[in-house]
Design a protein that fits this description.
Elements (H helix, E strand, L loop, with lengths): L6 E4 L5 H12 L3 E6 L2 H13 L4 E5 L5 H15 L4 E4 L14 H29 L2 E6 L15 H21 L4 E8 L8 H4 L2 H8 L10 H12 L10 E4 L7
Parallel strand pairs: 1-2, 1-4, 2-3, 4-5, 5-6, 6-7
Helix pairs in contact: 1-8, 3-4, 4-5
NADP nicotinamide-adenine-dinucleotide phosphate binds next to helix 1 and helix 4.
């Protein structure tokens, strides 16, 4: 067990990739805080972890709200005594044509996908700095800009994911003296409810898959394996990196 004795917080963990990361880290010995906007749904994930003899706690937290984020970290310390790992995973992808995008659409996406990552990273980093160790993993996307993919109807989403990569690099530099490593993961298309709108249009789905050399979507567990690696001491010299996991999409 690579994470025995560690305490991990996963945001947006009631379903999709966050749920998979929570199950994986718990299986590897971490005590896991399963956090999302629905307490009831988080509790279901916690029950599953407990059935497998793992330790977990469900905490309702809207990552865009500072008070809720601080409360999540406070409850984590109260229950498990510390926090070693944060997986900043909660996110939304609202498809809306740019010319119709409202200020509210923009703010909501940036509040959750980018400000939420800042709030969670800062709240845990204050604890990690005291203990002089910690790992922060930010889930970005191949929509991150530069060599990434510009997705139509997702301008706000792409902007948030680019912001995450910049934030990851700056945080890695600033937090290295505290022995806190910060990395990002940029997944391609992964089989979660987030890609349901794409799947409802088989032609668009096929057009996207035709650009992926492995010609399939990824499984959440495949991303969880990378989360585990970055969370563990096996990646002890990796910080400030963004690792792409996309079946070769960006290379193609
Ligand atoms: P998902 O199944 O939709 O899971 C995202 C979770 O975040 C949901 O449970 C969602 O709850 C929750 N959430 C939304 N707003 C929140 C908030 N304010 N506070 C806390 N939790 C909130 O999507 P996923 O595919 O697993 O996505 C996980 C991460 O991977 C996201 O950051 C996403 O951008 C990224 N990503 C996904 C893909 C992909 O192909 N699936 C590719 C690249 C990157 P609700 O359902 O109630 O909104």
């Amino acid at each position: 067990m690579d994470l025995k004795g560690k305490v991990a917080i996963i945001t947006g963990a009631r379903r999709g990739m966050g749920r998979s990361h929570a199950l994986k880290l718990a299986k590897e010995g971490a005590k896991v805080v399963v956090s999302d906007i629905s307490q009831e749904e988080c509790q279901k994930v916690v029950e599953k972890i407990k059935k497998g003899k793992g330790k977990a706690l469900a905490i309702k937290c809207d990552v865009s709200k500072k008070e809720e984020v601080e409360e999540m970290v406070r409850k984590t310390i109260e229950k498990f005594g510390k926090v070693d790992i944060l997986v900043n995973n909660a996110g939304i992808a609202q498809f809306v044509p740019f010319l119709e995008m409202t200020e509210e659409d923009w703010d909501r996406t940036l509040d959750i996908n980018l400000k939420g990552y800042f709030l969670c990273a800062q709240a845990v980093a204050k604890e990690m700095a005291k203990q002089k160790s910690g790992v922060i993993i930010n889930i970005a996307s191949v929509a991150m800009g530069q060599q990434g993919i510009g997705f139509p109807n997702l301008v706000h989403y792409c902007a948030s994911k680019g912001g995450i990569v910049g934030m990851t690099e700056a945080l890695a530099v600033e937090l290295a003296p505290y022995n806190i490593r910060v990395n990002a993961i940029s997944p391609g298309m992964i089989e979660t409810p987030m890609i349901d709108p794409l799947k409802s249009d088989p032609k668009m789905m096929e057009a996207m898959l035709s650009k992926v050399p492995m010609h399939r979507v990824g499984k959440p567990e495949e991303v969880s394996n990378l989360v585990l690696f970055l969370a563990s001491d096996k990646s002890s010299y990796i910080t400030g990196s963004t690792i792409v996991i996309d079946g070769g999409w960006l290379a193609g």
